[in-house]
Design a protein that fits this description.
Helix content is 29%, strand content 23%. By secondary structure, the chain is an alpha+beta fold.
Length: 139
């Protein structure tokens, strides 16, 4: 049984779950700022109280939102937790979308995770009408 907790995550939890999948290290101040500037945050807790996943929404909350940091601790992957978190994130964005408008919900996924997002109706890029996503790391 998984419990989702909204908008309540500590820096240590955020860093723990990122580190569980070997993502780039963040400072405590970076992590706190990321938490503070998120539109929405959800964490997944198992029946033993263990943090097993998280995801957050960033963006302007009107025209575009991004799914960011959707992570499930490796030993809990492929158990449906990622889908539960993703659906909660999508529901949040739907709840803030103005009636009669279109909101873009975007993400960049880790290599090899495309089938998971395709299963949830995301469109891989590039397409005939959409160019590829791009990134630049500023160090």
């Amino acid at each position: 049984m998984i419990t989702l907790v909204e908008n309540d995550i500590k820096v240590e939890e955020y860093l723990y779950i990122r580190n569980s999948v070997s993502w780039k290290k963040l400072s405590n101040s970076q992590a706190q700022k990321a938490i503070d500037n998120s539109l929405f945050f959800v964490k997944a807790i198992d029946e033993n109280g263990k943090l097993v996943g998280m995801g957050r929404i960033v963006g302007d909350g009107s025209v575009i939102c991004y799914i960011q940091d959707l992570v499930v601790v490796p030993e809990f992957q492929k158990s449906g937790i990622g889908s539960v978190i993703l659906n909660k994130l999508i529901d949040y964005v739907k709840s803030i979308k103005e009636e009669g408008t279109t909101m873009m919900l975007c993400l960049m996924c880790a290599k090899g995770r495309e089938p998971f997002y395709i299963k949830h109706n995301f469109i891989p890029r590039p397409t005939d009408g959409l160019g590829p996503g791009m990134i630049q790391y500023l160090e």
